[in-house]
Amino acid sequence: MNAPLILSPAALAKIDQAVAKYPADQKQSAVMAALTIAQDEKGWLPTDTMDFVAHYLDMPPIAVYEVASFYTMYDLKPIGRCKIAICTNLPCALQGATLAAEHLKQKLGIGFGETTADGAFTLKEAECLGACGEAPVMLVNNKNMACAMTADKLDKLLEELK
Amino acid sequence: MGLPVAPFAADLFGPDAVIMKGITGANWRLQDYLARGGYSALKKILAEKITPEQIVAELKKSALRGRGGAGFPTGLKWSFMPRQFPGDKYLVCNSDEGEPGTFKDRDIMRYNPHILIEGMAIGAYAMGIPVGYNYIHGEIWDVYERMEEALAEARAAGYIGKNIRGSDFSFELHNHHGWGAYICGEETALLESLEGKKGQPRFKPPFPASFGLYGKPTTINNTETFAAVPWIINNGGDAFLGLGKPNNGGTKIFSVSGDVTRPGNYEVKLGTPFAKLLEMAGGMRGGKKLKAVIPGGSSMPVLPADIMMATDMDYDSIAKAGSMLGSGAVIVMDETRCMVKSLLRLAYFYYEESCGQCTPCREGTGWLYRVIDRIEHGKGKPEDLDLLNNLADNIQGRTICALGDAAAMPVRAFIKNYRDEFQHHIDHKQCLVPHYI
User: How much is the ipTM here?
Assistant: First the structure.
């Protein structure tokens, strides 16, 4: 059975590169990379996309859903065009992250886990991003880390991302 | 956004740095590493045909202990690998750094990636391992990309791959990224994740040395541990030991965060007084008074200021003072901080990050969080402190992995050392100190 082609040839080429890192009989090891590549392309992970990844890696779909729902940076529901995840854990909080998070909430008019009405931003509370020395830190669309985010820098960044 | 360009002076990691010596933030490429004498340890091993046994003996002499948190002697761990075992064997680097307060591996990988590659190659040689994986915290994508680039450089120059430097030693290395799960820093959860599954820890035994990645013998070390290996080979185990103190060899990178003037990574000799480390980090921010320090990452017991100011930064001294060196994450808190609120944030972290496999941890971390939450918000009951200690007793030591312990230990220590603050919250429904977080 051939699954319909849900990801672009470019995405498939990237997944193939990931698969090549692991032993031939261990394609499943590439599932996290494949889901990340799929999410980059789709913006989130609809079920048909996860099913496609399962088929592509010879995995049962449930094994892919398990992975996608276990790791926090996979989005299983549609989100805003820009996802901001700010760490509020203790070391960051001591260095102003709570204030930065409040600033973001006020500016965007939303709380954690919410998306702005225009669909531009989703705000999330992150756990340790591993960059406490440069707090307040946040991730923009999973892959871009913004460090030492003062109120001024936050305003500028939101303007750029709009 | 992205990687900051040379934001600091060349000696920011400190004058005693050996792993991060000469690092400017911009000199991460292969040519820079070679100019610093990089890959000379690997070349020396291959040219002089130093035996795996000699390397392991040198590591044992060095008293290098695992830098990820457990502090297990590295030479001993390497000697567990059944070198002669026919078939596949794996070397894994645990770069899944997500313990609140810890950010040293990020700096090693983004500023000095080749030292990790060289350290892993030496480990592979010493243990007869043909393939390795470097599991990188998913949240630091730019660092993952940098490691990919550095690895491509190393491969092109013949430091990784088949018949390295014309020898009969071959080693393939790959980077693998996580995608948001603290638990994958636990080594068996990391292996599960590397196999493409949920990161739920395995029962031990069997230990990874006999049943690891894909069920094959596997050695897992932390990033900083591998990064210390080239220096030990170049300078000898005795010299490394001499940098620190007996049973605590070498330097250690401490990630200093919280209420200090210059949060950051400082590489100092093990045994350096805490007071000196605090001074390197610019002292207390705003000239405030030191109140408390968590000396080894959020999972370790908090210690009061007076004890920390009399303690040296090494495994044995911190254990003697009542905590653990852990990952070397030093979280500094000043006199304005509320200990109830601080503990509440940590308790939420463990509640959020419990993988859900073991009942005491899955349910217990939620209980801890909810009871601390009600104390913080003026709804605490007189029996709550005993309840928290009882909960901690019923989590610690009763789970497959150490996340349960990591949730329980801070609770116990915060209550033990700051009981009056917790009691005040319960009795007076308000905070004893003006707090800012």
Answer: 0.96
